[in-house]
Write a structure and sequence with these properties.
With about 475 residues, the protein is α+β, with helices and mostly antiparallel strands. The protein has 11 helices and 27 strands. It has a 4-stranded antiparallel beta sheet. Strands 2-1-6 form a 3-stranded mixed beta sheet. Strand 8 and strand 9 form a beta hairpin. Helix 2 packs across helix 5 and helix 3 packs antiparallel against helix 4.
Amino acid sequence: MAFDRRSKRRAKEERSLFPFWTLLVIALCAGLWVFGAKLYQDQMAAYRAYAAISQAAAQTTFFPGVTVDGIELGGMTRDEANALFADRQRQTASAFSLVVASGEKRWRITSDEVPMTFDAEAVLARAYAVGREGTLSERWRQIEQARTEGFAFETGYVYDRSAVSELTRIIADSLDVEAKDATLDAFDVNNRTFTFTKESSGWRVDRERLTQDILAALDAENYDAVIIPHGESVVPKITLAQLEGRFGRVSSFTTTTTKDNDRNTNIAISAAALNGRVVMPGETLSFNGCTGQRTGEKGYREAGAIAGGVLVDDTGGGVCQTSSTLFNAVVRADLEIVKRYAHSWPSSYVNKGEDATVNWPSLDFVFRNNGEFPVFVVAWYADQQVTVEIYGLMLENGMTIDLESTVTQTLKPSDEVLYTLDESLPVGTRKAGRKKRTGYVVDTYKVYKDAEGNELRREKLWTTTYRAQQDEILYH
């Protein structure tokens, strides 16, 4: 009993020294220690992972798995990659060598003629950005994705298409062959025959197709291509057969002269000065320019001529008949009249309003070739007749041109005698001056007729006024 009481007392004393709650504290402390140790280990592991990720993300080379044009760039610096692709660009540019061939002609097209622009630098910049954009975790995911799945990029280039177009133009211009129309080559005045140059076909490059063929080869990187230009024949507009039937005598006009040998000599010389003259399209022919000043050295003689409304003897008198004959032939050839002057009174050898007087150097007859082909003048004197013919492209469909003149007004002279002082006369003398003449107002028309002589239309050419003049007495 006593032993039991001692045991109970000892147990009570022990409980008072080690309360129950101390066990709980000890257990809690042990748990906290274990937790702290685990937390420390986790933090250290996280730190080591963070440090590893940071170290990996901080590298200055491309990440493994990043490729450009199939080339692995992992572990390569940007400078190394740029140098690599710069070399590849040079190789690509040097390999660029197309050939355009036509017959024996060759044109080589290289990057010197067609500049190339590469985008490798920009593509490498995008490739280098893998794993370097976003938060650290986002960057790490890109790095891991590159390592496991890969990031692939492709470079490209563009070339100057305008340069291709310009090269096409240069090549095509050198290959184009202009079609040549049949042309009038010469005219034999003596035989009245024409000589022609035969037409020849041309060839024109299809510029659009050539441009597209070159671009297609460049796009396909087919740098060894030999491109053949295509084109089509160009047919001339005018053939020899067309010309041969269209050229001949366009017009002819003849006037009858007098029996005055001196006058006829002057007419013959002036006609010879016109004979064989060629007037090219757009050019003019001057009667005075053909004959020059009519002088005795040239064989011209003194003959009757109108000067100041008076008939006088003049060197070269009568050449107005040649100029008037030329005028009538020129009008009937539908050529353009540039200068024409009428006589003081109507001429006997042509109708009123259809004359063309000349006088060196003030009065001239001038016409222009307003057609597309040369015209040739044939003129001669024989048997008291002077004839002028115009040869060239004949009028269409056998058409002819004639002149018709109508007197619209008759001007009667005054019956009074006009006295005019002439100090060149001796004092106290008188001399007959101009003689009394009736005047006229005349309208002249160009009349176009068909091959059968039917009138097609008419155009007013001009109105000519021959002034009336009264008898005149010169005195001093």
